[in-house]
Amino acid sequence: MSPNRESTAAARRPRRRSLLSVLGVLTGMALTVVPLSTANVASAAVSPAHGKGTRVSAWSPGMTTGGPSFDNQTIRMVVHSSVAGSGARITLSNRYSPAPLDVSAVDVAVQASGGEATRGTTRNITFGGSRHVTIPAGAEAVSDVIPISVSAGENLLVSLYVPGTTGMSTWHSDAFDTTYIASGNHAGDDSAAAFGSTTTSWYYLAGLDVLSPTARGTVVAFGDSITDGYHSSTGTYTRWPDFLGRRLGAGSGPQKLSVVDSGIGGNRVLTDVPNLWQGVSALKRFGHDALGQPGVKDVILFEGINDIGNNAGPDGGPLTAQDLVNGYRTLIDQAHAAHVNVIGATLMPDQGNGYYTPAAEAIRQDVNHWIRTSGAFDGVIDFDQTMRDSSNPAALNPAYDSGDHIHPNDAGMKAMSDAIDLRLLRS
User: Fold this and answer.
1) Confidence (pTM)
2) Cα(376)–Cα(371) distance, rounded to whole angstroms?
3) Which of 127, 173, 348, 363 could covalently link to 133 via disulfide, CB atoms 3.0 to 4.6 Å apart?
């Protein structure tokens, strides 16, 4: 999104350049092998929920292609639940990988600290009654119901053991949380002693959903690196969707909505990003990543600055404001066809960042004017007004600027959440 981010991405680009040739194949696979919402619908038929309440998504990152390969390793990941519930299920995704994924063991436990599990909380996870699951290329697998409860804001550790060589993984590159890697099968270990290396990405793990006695639905925060939490503090859950989840939980009475973060750094509305790990376009992933979430009621759509900053119009041409408007209208139509509310968020200022030019600023202003005044969205959140410098509206408020003049710091992330009128959300 920004020069700093792009230079980081560029440093990683050489080892992935050879992967570009498979993008077209994987993109097509991801969109045709797994129809919208099929994984959740199919799983519900096989493994019905036990108990009473509404099944909602508690955690679900957007996934992409281009991740590293694993071989005879256990991957232990932190899952931060936005809502309380029981009867949990997880989703494993091989959606953007070119080969079947063989998983021999999956376990979940309550996190004690770091990669260490709270003794006595580990539960085996099965798929159709089996500890072993093979997920075809381009597909996903939803687990059987797990006898574990989770509180809002609680962390679980999900560990999966892959016995062979996986090839390129389906992943979420920028987790802003710590993942622990061990050689061999250590999925059921309480101790973290065997987990000798760490990363800040998630691999294959694409969702946690729960049966909530209080939440009536799911809010999906759908966007790019600002939603993904770029420049928020690692492991502190200070992305704006995290703050929103806590706001909803702190209200009077029980929490009525869960919140999931479907932001992907670098993502665009109209076109796929050449850097594989930044994802296919919103137009291609919206049906799955947003509308496919269990219990989805509202989507907050906050994306477009990467289209503007890269002047990335459709079919390789320059971008116009109308191009973005057309893209938004397509997503709105998809949401309404699924009986889901879609709330539009204005694009924040970025003067001082490499994305900024007078021409790009003109497009941003035109797009924001349309978001505010068209009536096409079911509601509007004016992040631009909240986050801009009052003395220079083309720039971020310095108090909220992480330093790259486009991504907010933790205080800015909180300000974004505080700017959301909770009455816009269908609870």
Assistant:
1) 0.89
2) 8
3) 127
